[in-house]
Specification:
There is one protein chain. It contains two helices and three strands. It has one domain. A three-stranded antiparallel β-sheet has the order 1-2-3, with no helix packed on it. Strand 1 and strand 2 (17-24) form a beta hairpin. By secondary structure, the chain is an alpha+beta fold. It has helices at 50-65, 72-98; strands spanning 5-11, 17-24, 27-31.
């Protein structure tokens, strides 16, 4: 599989994942830099989340499925991406339940 993109992934001073960027022909992603925080300290996002990029790819494949390019391979890719989105949502829910979502706590 051809990569076709360049990625930079950054760490903060504590070694936690921070922002970064991924880009290639026709796209550029600036990743969320730092946690959003909790409660009254919560801040607005400053970059993309993996979940949003997955949703955008699903949207594009669904567009193909409504065209002459509909095919089983697209359906399988959509199903796999939806499963990935579900797993990431379950992770977020579990972190919310433990009160650590929006932080670097594990």
């Amino acid at each position: 599989m051809k990569a076709g993109f360049h990625a930079e992934h950054w760490l903060d001073v504590a070694g936690h994942p921070a922002g970064g960027c991924t880009y290639g022909v026709g796209f550029a992603i600036s990743w969320q830099n730092g946690p959003l925080g909790r409660g009254g300290l919560r801040r607005e996002p400053n970059g993309a989340f993996v979940e949003d990029v997955i949703a955008a790819v699903i949207d594009r494949l669904l567009f193909y499925q409504g065209s002459d390019f509909a095919c089983e391979a697209n359906e399988q890719a959509i199903a796999a991406l939806r499963r990935a989105a579900i797993v990431l949502d379950e992770r977020t829910t579990e972190r919310e339940e433990r009160g650590v979502e929006g932080t670097h706590q594990r």
